[in-house]
Amino acid sequence: MRFKNVQELQAIAEIIGCKFVGKPEFEVYGMNEIHVVTEGEIVFVDHPKYYDKALNSKATIVLINKEVPCPEGKALLISDDPFRDFNTLSKYFNPFKPAQTALAVDAQIGEGTQIQPNVFIGNGVVIGRNCTIHPQVVLYDGTIIGDDVVIHAGAVLGADAFYFKKRPEGYDPLVSCGRVVIENRVFIGAACTIDRGVTGDTTIGAGTKIDNQVHIGHDSVIGKNCLIAAQTGIAGCVVIEDEVTLWGQVGTTSGITIGEKAVVLGQTGVTKSLEGGKVYFGTPVDESREKLKQLANVKKLPEILIKVKNL
Predict the structure, then answer these.
(1) What's the pTM value of the predicted model, to 2 decimals?
(2) At the N or C end, where does the chain have fewer CB atoms within 10 A?
(3) H helices of the chain, where?
(4) How far apart, in whole angstroms, are the C-alpha atoms of residue 40 and residue 8?
(5) 84 near 104, Cβ under 8 Å?
(6) Same fold, 2-93 and 108-293
(7) Distance of CA 104 to the CA centre of its chain
(8) Which CATH number fits domain 108-293: 2.30.260.10, 3.30.230.80, 2.160.10.10, 3.40.640.10?
(9) pLDDT at residue 141 is higher than 80
């Protein structure tokens, strides 16, 4: 998330009430998660396992819960609870704006687009030309829709990320202030849910077709001309490259990449990144031919045991 105006390090420190390392006038352009952070932005880290990754990332400002040497050209914000303070900054620079009407006054709707009854369109939503938005669709604040997009009834775009920190008193959510971006000619089936990014974008590439009851988690990037069948569940921070096919009830773990033109057969559990151009099946996932051979050999086990017993 980029700030509307460039901030200074000291001002950021004052908002969250923490110490800082660096020049008071050090420029701060925004904030982001570590997998999408860029120069001039804040990233937070609250576990020793990830200190080095954060300090050596593209982030220029590191919000951290330990006093450590500051890398050259960067700045530090020293906090006793970086997760909490990252949320504080998210709320400060992107405060929640309650809806006043079902169609926000600042929403932009392109020529030829048809909006069916009982659609909710939030603040700052942009919808392109010649789209069809069917009844009961919910487009949360900041959602971007391209041209020639069809969204069927009951789909929800832009709900918060499923991202929580466990504390003694329960689970603390990481505040979501990212967007959902739908490119041109995308088809979204009924009752689909696509979560917004935490600080970046969840993106669906041009020409992709999504069946009914599909869930796509926060910050995932779906490529162009993909096919995703019903009841598939895609976790957060997944990259699916162009022309991938996911058949019904496929499920993925987070943070993986599925390569271009891969095909994943129904009810497969994708537990790791997959190379493109191959067909996959099973849980844990494997190339389809190899997995089917394994299953065929399992069926032969009783016969093999009988032969061994009779030796």
Answers:
(1) 0.93
(2) C
(3) 9-16, 51-55, 82-93, 288-299, 301-309
(4) 11
(5) no
(6) no
(7) 25
(8) 2.160.10.10
(9) yes
For the question of residue 215 being annotated catalytic, the response is no
Query: Quick check: 88 and 94 in contact, CB under 8 A?
Result: no
Side chain identity, residue 69: P
227-228/209-210 β-pairing: parallel
Token pair 């499920």 is found at 251
Indicate which residue of 134, 152, 215, 218 is catalytic.
218
> Where do the structural domains in the chain lie, given as residue ranges?
2-93, 108-293
pLDDT digits (tens, 9 = 90+) for 37-63: 999 999 999 999 999 999 999 999 999
* Distances in whole angstroms, Cα of residue 104 to Cα of each of 61, 119, 126, 139, 202: 35, 11, 11, 11, 22
Place of tokens 């709320």: 91
Residue positions counted in the chain:
311
